[in-house]
Design a protein that fits this description.
The structure holds 2 protein chains of 2 kinds. By secondary structure, chain A is of the alpha+beta class. Chain A has helices at about 15-25, 40-50, and strands at about 5, 30-35, 55-60, 65-70. The radius of gyration of chain A is 11 Å and the shape is globular. Chain B is an alpha+beta fold. Chain B folds into 2 domains: about 5-125, 60s Ribosomal Protein L30, Chain: A (2-Layer Sandwich); about 135-315, Phosphoribosyl-aminoimidazole Synthetase, Chain A, domain 2 (Alpha-Beta Complex), CATH 3.90.650. Chain B is built from 10 helices and 13 strands. Chain B has helices at about 40-60, 80-95, 145-155, 160-170, 175-185, 195-205, 225-230, 235-245, 255-260, 280-290; strands at about 5-10, 15-20, 25-35, 60-70, 100-105, 110-120, 135-140, 190, 210-215, 250, 270-275, 295-305, 310-315. In chain B, strand 2 and strand 3 (about 25-35) form a beta hairpin. In chain B, helix 1 packs parallel to helix 2 (about 80-95) and helix 3 crosses helix 4 (about 160-170). Chain B is globular. Classes of the chains: A alpha+beta, B alpha+beta. At the A-B interface, helix 2 of A face helix 3 of B.
Chain lengths: ~70, ~325
């Protein structure tokens, strides 16, 4: 089961902060982050990688993106 | 506009308009205002004023008078905030030897402040953003990364000393840099603001048939900027500037994407980008440092090959 962080409608750095908080909380596993701008898509992916997580996939969803990140 | 006295007008994407009054005198006019980028209203006033004055300095001129431009949500915000902003602006004008001649304010849902500035210059001394020749060295007078650092400040992740350094740098006048470039002799100049280093550098070569090479490792950066870019604390403007110019820029794979991002980062009250003849570049750097502009650095050169393209390499 992956947790979902819904950062739609929020501008940076908010989605990045929400992602980092979730990473700190769950420590490993899978997280899905929902964003709705290209800036947030790129920043959230960077934030995940900087924390040692892998970006598994970025798919368009609605007017935004669904970003899946994971860490074993 | 078909006025022979208009030396620099709208057609040139330059920093300010320049209009010839007599054979010895031209006026420089510019206007700029924006929303707060720091929490401290006094510092915001200083930064906004320094930013507005910079357009006159970038033309090599001397600012004389200024008018305040204010948009203020009077029903939602305490008037003391506006007083502090205006005090900051006025202190910066005093430092620049500029007289406040008036201003205009409107009620707005979002706070904005800036200046309309009038300056003077000898018509033959005007430094536009074009005129650089192949072989000219490019000198930058302030570190890059204010957009990224400001995003990190919003995220509460910037160290106190970084915040202080960025605020101090944004509030610093480009006057000394401008005086040095006029004294030593420059061929072209622009200030680095919203389009970032690469966007404004482009304006220097557009339509000229010249190209530019930047040495990424020599570009002065705010400490932590690369790290924040890596962490995803990048403003949308940086990505937009990058995507807009990417087709005209060749970045060496040795330059990390986080470092190259900073070359696209929109700057608030950024430094001057000066094109200096090769034989004068060393002296100009030396004089800039003597005037306290420690971060001044030679960051690239104008070239004859790769027409109207910018190459970014790691070292020269």
């Amino acid at each position: 089961m992956s947790t979902i962080v819904d950062a739609k409608g929020l501008s940076c750095p908010q989605p990045v902060l929400m992602t980092m908080n979730e990473i700190k909380k769950v420590k490993k596993g899978e997280i899905v982050i929902l964003v709705d701008t290209d800036t947030s898509k790129e920043n959230v992916s960077r934030a995940a990688m900087a924390q040692g997580w892998t970006v598994k996939g970025v798919e368009p969803e609605g007017t935004g993106y669904r970003i899946s990140i994971a860490k074993d | 506009m078909d006025d022979p006295n208009l030396i620099v007008g709208m057609d040139r994407a330059d920093d300010a308009g320049v209009y010839k009054i007599s054979k010895d005198l031209a006026i420089i006019q510019t206007v700029d205002f924006f929303t707060p980028i720091v929490d401290d209203p006094y510092m915001f006033g200083q930064i906004a004023a320094a930013n507005s004055l910079s357009d006159v300095y970038a033309m090599g001129g001397q600012p004389l008078t200024a008018m305040n431009i204010v948009c203020f949500p009077i029903k939602m915000m305490d008037i003391s905030i506006l007083r502090e902003i205006l005090r900051g602006g006025l202190d910066k004008m005093k430092e620049a030897g500029v007289t406040l001649a008036g201003g205009h304010s409107v009620e707005d849902s979002e706070l904005k402040y800036g200046l309309s500035v009038t300056g003077i210059i000898h018509p033959s001394r005007v430094l536009t953003n074009v005129g650089a020749k192949a072989g000219d060295r490019l000198i930058l007078t302030k570190p890059l990364g204010t957009g990224i650092i400001n995003t990190a400040i919003k995220a509460g992740m910037a160290k106190e000393e970084s915040v202080a350094m960025v605020v101090h740098c944004m509030a610093r006048l480009n006057r000394d840099a401008s005086e040095v470039m006029q004294e030593v002799g420059a061929r072209a100049c622009t200030d680095i603001t919203g389009f970032g280093l690469i966007g404004h550098a482009f304006e220097m070569i557009q339509g000229t048939g010249k190209g530019i090479v930047f040495y990424a490792s020599q570009v002065p950066l705010f400490p932590e900027a690369v790290n924040f870019a890596k962490m995803g604390l990048v403003p949308g403007g940086t990505y937009r500037n990058r995507d807009f110019r990417m087709q005209q820029v060749d970045i060496d794979p040795a330059v990390s994407p986080y470092l190259s991002d900073i070359l696209f980062d929109p700057q608030t009250s950024g430094g001057l980008l000066i094109a200096a003849p090769t034989e004068k570049a060393g002296k100009m750097i030396k004089r800039l440092k003597e005037r306290g502009i420690e971060e001044a650095a030679l960051i690239g050169e104008v070239v004859d090959d790769h027409k109207e393209r910018i190459a970014v390499v790691l070292n020269n």
